[in-house]
Structures are given as structure tokens and as C-alpha cells.
Write a structure and sequence with these properties.
Elements (H helix, E strand, L loop, with lengths): L6 H4 L5 H12 L2 E2 L11 H12 L12 H15 L9 E4 L1 H13 L5 E6 L5 H7 L3 E6 L9 H7 L4 E7 L11 H13 L3 E5 L25 E6 L12 E4 L2 H15 L4 H11 L3 H25 L2 E3 L6 E5 L8 H12 L1 E2 L1 E2 L13 E5 L4 H11 L7
Parallel strand pairs: 1-11, 3-4, 3-5, 5-6, 6-7
Antiparallel strand pairs: 2-8, 7-8, 9-10, 10-13, 12-13
Helix pairs in contact: 3-10, 4-10, 5-6, 5-9, 11-13
The protein binds pyridoxal-5'-phosphate (PLP).
Pyridoxal-5'-phosphate binds next to helix 5.
Length: 388
């Protein structure tokens, strides 16, 4: 007899994105692959976390989240978007938005249920769907604007549809969904009695006047939406693992049960620091968007000079770029060349598609990086030449 892994676990691979970070370390490459900032987190957050540890906030918080943090999450969402949220019954604090997503899907989906997903997609959604036993129905976002065909979306919904995953601002494309697109998604959710599970982790990282609209703010949608967010990107603390889900009481009750048995709870002292984070003034968010706008311009310039065809993002901190001009057969060999010979790590486009061939001409660059990191990437990318 020999031991074996589950059929579920055999159906997906390790994360390509996290693998690229390991390769970057191995080859001493500039890491523009994984989406974590290489600059400092805000000082007041670090101090708040240190104080919480010193004050002995070191035991389990309430499983669905420290009361003060849930109140801050509910208050902020209501103030920004006019959606009433009951912190006692509608907010669950999780270990990052990663846990919020898998807990929400496990709470909503039964084996055989269908879930609509836009493609290219953030790679976690694939395994999340498999672990939930659900069947993904993919709808293509097409460059250069990464828009979708409304009829294709309509066709993706059917009698077995239980949910749609919406990620806006979007990783990897940088797309920010417009109100008319969100209204169509809302209409289809109503028609098919489906839930919108929306990942809004890049909510504050917007360019050129793009406006973030939470689908929960559309008429009748708060009752059928799980809004997922977290501290990672807005406050540059991806290692803290504090996220949350806002959902109507019936869905929150299920998310809370799943979350309790997955992780019990997110780090208690960091939840305290989360209260400080959510109390930062508007000036913090304005400066965050300004700083990312500068980094976006910088990376777009670097990519243009290096010979890429880049698709400028409307939000989030990634740029998808076409590599056709360099003459490689596929994205994975190109990325390997880039990390080993040029010294820059990026993510192969194929990891965002169900059929890898659909992303073989694309790579994704992350620009949540210091000026020095982008300067070094520029020096190295200048050595890149088309293959003969
Ligand atoms: C769209 C999206 N959702 C979720 C996450 C993970 O967020 P967290 O650190 O809150 O788990 C990422 C990280 O890159 C992301 O891009």
C-alpha cells in the first residue's frame, strides 16, 4: 500500500506567482513578480501593532473578528459607499482576503454548482473553485481594454450558477469595471438567484480618474454580495494576513462557521493595528494613489523602452505586457530567460488562464516597488534583445 494525496489536491499546481518569488531569490533577480511592496509600511501602523503586543492583546480574538475592527470596517464601508453594514452580523475578519475568498466559496457552493469567473483571473480562484467542488464558467476579458462581451457573460449564467467572482480593480489586467458592466452582472445575479463574490483589495489604487464601484452599492445587491477586502495592499502589510468579508447575515453566518474551522481567527494584535489603519485620514489614500501613479508611469516607460507592448492599467499595481516582439515560443521560456539571464522576475501570463496557451504571449509585471528597484529593473531590461 502507498499513501496518496487527494484527487482535489492533484488537480492544481503550486502557485506560479509564489514560485517566481523563490526563483527570484535563487537567481538574485529583481522581483517584479509577486504583488508585495518592498517599501516600509506606515509608521503609525507598526507602532500600533507593537503597542497591541505590549498591551497583551496576544490571545485569540473573537473568532469572527475583534469588535473594534469589525466596527471600523462597517463604518468605513458605509461612509464611503452609503451601504449600511451591521458589524455584529455582517462582518467576518479572516486571515487575509485569501481566506475570506475560500471561506466564502466553501460557504456558498456545493459540489456541481457553477461559478462564473472572468479570465484572465487571479490564480487563487482556480484552486478555490476546485476545493469547493464547483465548476468554473469562464468569461474572457479581452485586450487592449480588457472588456467582456455582454452576450458571453449572459451565456455563462445558467440554472446551476450559484455565484460570480468579480475582482475590481482587477489583477492581473488592471481593469476597473464600469457601472454599466456591474449593472449587467447585478441583473444576471438577480435573474439566476446568484451571489456576487467581489474581491476589492485594490479599491484605493486607481489611475486617471477611474472610480471604484462596489457591486454591493448597486440596488438590491447588498443582500446577495460578499465583499472581500483586506489590509495587505491598501496599507502595504501583505505579511500581516488580515482581511475580511462583508455579507448579509445568512451568508455571514455560513462564512463565519467555515472560517472558524479553517483558522479560528486572524492575528489579534494586528487586528488592533487594523483599527488604526482604518482611521487614517483621506490624505493617506490620496498619497497612496499618487505614489502608485508615479510608479505606474515609471514602469510603463521602462517597458516601452525595453520593447514590450504594455497594456496600461486603470487600477491595481500590475502591468500586463505582450512579449510577441521578442520571438519566444511561450511565456514560460521567456520568463525563465528573464530571471536567469537578464535578472528580472515576472509572472508568466499562462498562469492566469485555464488553457495555458491563451496566455503564452503575455507576462505580468508588478510595480509595488521602490524607485531603486525599478531603476535596477530598467538597467537590466535594457539588455533584453529579440531572440534570433
Ligand atoms: C486580487 C487579489 N486578491 C487577493 C490577494 C491576496 O490578498 P491577501 O493578502 O489579503 O490574502 C491578492 C494578492 O496579490 C490579489 O491580487
Amino acid at each position: 500500500m502507498s499513501v496518496r494525496a487527494s484527487a482535489k489536491a492533484a488537480r492544481f499546481t503550486e502557485s506560479v506567482i509564489r514560485e517566481m518569488t523563490r526563483l527570484a531569490h535563487q537567481h538574485g533577480a529583481v522581483n517584479l513578480s509577486q504583488g508585495f511592496p518592498d517599501f516600509a509600511a506606515p509608521e503609525e501602523l507598526k507602532v500600533a501593532a507593537q503597542k497591541a503586543v505590549a498591551a497583551d492583546v496576544n490571545q485569540y480574538a473573537i473568532t469572527w473578528g475583534a469588535k473594534r475592527l469589525r466596527e471600523a470596517i462597517a463604518r468605513t464601508f458605509t461612509e464611503r459607499y452609503g451601504v449600511a453594514v451591521d458589524p455584529e452580523r455582517e462582518v467576518t475578519v479572516t486571515c487575509g482576503s485569501t481566506e475570506a475568498m475560500i471561506a466564502a466559496l466553501l460557504a456558498i457552493l456545493d459540489p456541481g454548482d457553477e461559478v462564473v469567473i472572468f479570465e484572465p483571473f487571479y490564480e487563487n480562484y482556480g484552486p478555490d473553485t476546485i476545493l469547493s467542488g464547483a465548476v468554473p464558467k469562464l468569461v474572457r476579458l479581452r485586450p487592449p481594454g480588457w472588456t467582456f462581451d455582454p452576450d458571453e457573460l449572459r451565456r455563462a449564467f445558467g440554472p446551476k450558477t450559484r455565484a460570480i467572482i468579480v475582482n475590481t480593480p482587477n489583477n492581473p489586467t488592471g481593469r476597473v469595471f464600469r457601472e454599466d458592466e456591474l449593472r449587467l452582472i447585478a441583473e444576471l445575479c438577480h435573474e439566476h438567484d446568484a451571489v456576487a463574490v467581489t474581491d476589492e483589495i485594490y479599491e484605493h489604487i486607481l489611475y486617471g480618474g477611474a472610480r471604484h464601484i462596489p457591486i454591493a452599492a448597486l440596488p438590491g445587491m447588498a443582500e446577495r454580495t460578499v465583499t472581500i477586502n483586506g489590509m495587505s495592499k491598501t496599507y502595504s502589510v501583505t505579511g500581516w494576513r488580515v482581511g475580511w468579508a462583508i455579507a448579509p447575515p445568512v451568508l455571514s453566518a455560513a462564512v463565519r462557521k467555515v472560517h472558524d474551522f479553517l483558522t479560528v481567527g486572524a492575528a489579534a494584535p494586528l487586528q488592533e493595528a487594523g483599527v488604526t489603519a482604518l482611521s487614517l485620514p483621506q490624505a493617506y489614500y490620496d498619497e497612496l494613489a499618487r505614489a502608485y501613479t508615479r510608479r505606474r508611469e515609471r514602469l510603463l516607460g521602462i517597458l516601452e523602452r525595453a520593447g514590450f507592448r504594455a497594456f496600461p492599467p486603470e487600477g491595481a499595481y500590475y502591468v500586463m505586457a505582450d512579449i510577441t516582439a521578442f520571438g519566444w515560443d511561450d511565456d514560460v521560456s521567456f520568463v525563465r530567460h528573464l530571471v536567469q539571464e537578464i535578472g528580472v522576475a515576472v509572472v508568466p501570463g499562462s498562469s492566469f488562464f485555464e488553457n495555458p496557451a491563451d496566455g503564452r504571449h503575455l507576462v505580468r509585471f508588478a510595480f509595488c516597488k521602490k524607485d531603486e528597484t525599478l531603476d535596477e529593473a530598467e538597467r537590466r531590461l535594457a539588455r533584453l534583445r529579440p531572440r534570433r
